[in-house]
Amino acid sequence: MDIVTPATRSRMMAGIRSANTKPEIIVRSMLHAQGFRYRLGTKVLNMVPDIVLPKYKVAVFVHGCFWHRHLDCKYATTPKTHPEKWQKKFSENTNRDMRTVKRLLDAGWRVVVIWECWTKRKLDISWLGPWIKIPGASYVSWPEVNDIVP
Length: 150
Known about the structure:
A 4-stranded mixed beta sheet has the order 1-2-3-4, with helices on both faces. It has 6 helices and 4 strands. The protein is of the alpha/beta class.
C-alpha cells in the first residue's frame, strides 16, 4: 500500500532527473580538475554514456543504485507495491546495461560504471584519473560490494 496518492507519487517520480545528477556532477568536476576534457550527450554506437572521453576511448556511466540494481547495496530496494512490475522494470534495466557494456567493450572502448552510493559514503574516487590514463583494464564497476564500509 502506497502512503501517498497516485498524483503525488507521479509528481515525485517526475522529479527524478536522468542527467546532471549530483554524482555525475561530482565525477565531471573531478575529471575536469585533473585536466580531462570530456563530452556529454555524445552517441557512441547509438548509445549515450553519461561521460565520454574520446581521446582515451573511455565511456563512463554513473548509475543510480535503485534503478540499475547495484548488487547488495542498501539503496537498491524494491517497492512493496506492484513488486512484479518493478522486478520486470529492473530486469529490463540491468539487461540493457549488460548489453550496452558488452557492445562498447567489443568495439574497443573502455567502460567505467560508477554507482551513486559512493557519494553518500564519501568514498575516494581519485583512482579514476590514473585508471583512464593508463591503458590496461577495459572495465571497472565501482564501488564493489567489498569496497562499501557501513
